[in-house]
Design brief:
The chain is of the alpha+beta class and 331 residues long. β14 and β15 form a beta hairpin. One of its GO terms (biological process) is sporulation resulting in formation of a cellular spore.
C-alpha cells in the first residue's frame, strides 16, 4: 500500500506494555499475521519499526506487537500475537458468537491446527506465518464474546495431528450433499481429507445466484464478449471442474477453481454450479454452497452440534484418522 494509504489506514490508539515475543522460530506460542490481503511479491523487504500498541486498520482493531516493513511494492504490517488470542479472533471472524458450543470448539481446534501447520511451513522462509484474509484464515480482533472465550479456553493448545504431525485442516463455509476431494482444489491428496456426505443445514448459502458482467469476465479470461458458456467437466463429487467460454470465434476452457481465484472467490461462491446462462449484460451462475468444499463444512458442523454431536466427533468425521494432541505453548 502507499504511504498515504498506510497513514489513513492505521491509527495507533495507545502505547502500553505488552508481551514482547522473542525470535525463537520454533516457538508456537505466537503467530505472525500479515494484515490485509496484499502479499509482497519480492524479497527485498526492510524492517522499519516494531511497536507495542493497539491499532485500527481499515476499521478492525489489532492488539499486540505491530511491525512495519517496507518493500518495493509498498508497506506491509505484521501483527505478532499470542496464538490463543489469534484463535479467538479467527473463530469470531469465521463463524460468529451465536453458534452451538461444540461447533465453536470444533472451529477453534481446526483454526489452531491450521495456524500451527502454517507456522511450521512458513516461519523459516517468510516474514509472516499467515495473512488475515481468506487466503489463509479471516482474522480480526476478538471482541471478548463469552461463548468464544469459553470454546477457545476449553480446547487450549489442542490441534489435529496425523502420524504425529499437524494436519492441513482446511475448512469452508457450506457444502450441500458432500464435501470435495482435496486434489480437485489443491492438486494434492491428504489421507485425512476425503469427500464425506454432509447433513442438510440452515445455511444462507444453500442456494445462490450470481451475475458477472462481460467486462469482468473479459479481464479475467482475455476473451471478447461472451456468447456461450458450457459446463465441460465435473469432479468425482459432482462439482463443476471446467467451464468453456466462447465469443463465437474463440473458445477458452478454464478450471472453475482457477476462475474463482481470479475473481476473488466470492464472485462465484462455490464450484457446486447447476446452471450457467448468458444474458444481455453478463453471465448468470446458479449453484449451491460456499467455499472450496474441502475439509470441515462449518454450517454442517453447526447442524451436527445442534443434533448433539460433540466437537471431537465433528472433527473426526471431517478429518478421519486424525488425533487430538495438546501442544506445549513453548514447543
Amino acid at each position: 500500500m502507499s504511504i498515504m494509504r498506510l497513514i489513513l489506514s492505521i491509527v495507533i490508539i495507545v502505547f502500553f506494555s505488552l508481551p514482547v515475543y522473542g525470535i525463537d522460530r520454533n516457538d508456537k506460542s505466537f503467530i505472525r499475521v500479515l494484515l490485509g490481503d496484499v502479499r509482497p511479491k519480492l524479497n527485498d523487504l526492510k524492517h522499519i519499526k516494531k511497536v507495542a500498541s493497539k491499532a485500527i486498520i481499515d476499521g478492525s482493531v489489532y492488539s499486540g506487537e505491530i511491525e512495519i516493513w517496507k518493500g518495493s511494492e509498498g508497506y506491509f504490517l505484521i501483527n505478532v500475537v499470542n496464538l490463543e488470542d489469534y484463535v479467538k479472533g479467527v473463530v469470531t471472524s469465521e463463524v460468529g458468537i451465536n453458534w452451538p458450543e461444540e461447533a465453536l470448539k470444533a472451529q477453534a481446534v481446526a483454526a489452531r491446527t491450521y495456524a500451527v501447520a502454517q507456522i511450521i511451513r512458513n516461519r523459516d522462509r517468510n516474514f509472516y506465518d499467515v495473512t488475515s484474509s481468506v487466503f489463509h484464515q479471516v482474522y480480526r480482533q476478538d471482541e471478548g464474546a463469552e461463548q468464544i472465550e469459553k470454546a477457545v479456553r476449553e480446547t487450549k493448545g489442542q490441534i489435529l495431528t496425523y502420524e504425529g504431525q499437524p494436519i492441513m485442516a482446511f475448512y469452508h463455509a457450506c457444502s450441500i450433499g458432500k464435501t470435495e476431494n482435496p486434489e480437485e482444489v489443491f492438486g494434492k491428496n491428504y489421507p485425512y481429507l476425503k469427500s464425506v456426505e454432509v447433513p442438510s443445514t440452515p445455511s444462507p448459502y444453500t442456494l445462490w445466484e450470481k451475475k458477472i458482467s462481460f467486462d469482468t469476465l473479459k479481464k479475467a479470461l482475455s476473451i471478447d464478449k461472451i456468447s456461450d458458456v458450457k459446463i465441460k467437466s465435473y469432479t468425482s463429487t459432482g462439482r463443476v471442474k471446467e467451464l468453456e467460454f466462447s465469443d463465437g470465434k474463440n473458445k477458452k476452457t478454464i478450471r472453475t477453481t482457477e476462475l474463482r481465484r481470479i475473481l476473488q472467490w466470492t464472485a462465484i461462491p462455490s464450484t457446486m454450479i447447476n446452471s450457467v446462462k448468458v444474458e444481455e449484460d453478463g453471465v448468470v451462475f446458479e449453484g449451491y454452497g460456499f467455499g472450496h468444499g474441502v475439509g470441515m463444512c462449518q454450517w454442517c458442523a453447526f447442524q451436527m452440534a445442534h443434533e448433539g454431536k460433540n466437537y471431537k466427533e465433528i472433527l473426526q468425521y471431517f478429518y478421519p484418522g486424525t488425533e487430538i494432541t495438546t501442544i506445549n505453548e513453548n514447543n
